[in-house]
Specification:
Layout: H1 3-6, E1 18-21, E2 27-30, E3 36-40, E4 43-44, H2 54-81, H3 85-92, E5 103-107, H4 113-121, E6 126-131, H5 134-147, E7 151-155, E8 170-174, H6 183-193, E9 199-205, H7 207-214, H8 221-224, E10 243-250, E11 255-261
Parallel strand pairs: 5-6, 5-8, 6-7, 8-9
Antiparallel strand pairs: 1-2, 2-3, 3-4, 9-11, 10-11
Helix pairs in contact: 2-5
Length: 272
Amino acid sequence: MKRETLALLCDPVHGEPLEFVARPRPALRAVVGGSEYPIVHGIPIFAAQAAVVGANARYQKLYDRIAPVYDLANSFSFCLRSGGERRYRADILRELEVRDGDRVIEISCGTGRNLLFLNRSYSRLELYGLDLSLGMLRVCQRACRREGAEIRVFQGLAEALPFRDHTFDVVFHVGGINFFTDPARAMQEMIRIAKPGKKIVVVDETERKVRSTYQRVPFVRRWFRDRRAPVEIPIHAVPKMAEDVRVQELDGGNMYCLTFRKPLGADDKALT
């Protein structure tokens, strides 16, 4: 692991710095406390299976299962409803404020298609992705090798991100927060790792999309059948001190987009 990458990481539980250890197996170890996080197929594993509970455990299983066909199914869907994948991604990512050379992270990056789109569109980006599904991240790794793209990926919980405070120029999330175990905590974590003054973008499916598609598609509908409540845009988790708060619909009403800016000079405790 590169030294500059290690410098951005921390123990997701206690926030302590990490160090790389090669033996007896490659891992990241907390400098204080000694907690270890194994590296599997080159991917640091920050969410032990015992820590994955509730809705997170349910949907981790789903995405691990569908990972091999996920991109193909999405490409077909985009052609039918959005005029192709490139147009779809340009639409849902248009709210990002990206500059050449920025450090960018997608929370719930899946197979990395959004990050690869950004890699083709800008120069010298530092790209990072985190997802709970190791199956999706393995697909992302293979796609990066095919394109010669460098995207640093990590397996972990959105509610306990393994990154230091004020680390990223661009923090965004597309798809997943609707069904996190703790969406509000995930929002707090995205705010924590963003640099002050930077815009945070959260995109996910609307209730209409979930009902019209996910609850009808034979293979996946059982995963969405017993929902306790309809989709709720997590605007309640945006701190009062946040600036430029905005909600809009994208992709013909299939997606919502929540954006806001982390204020300059605000105390982190006031933002939680």
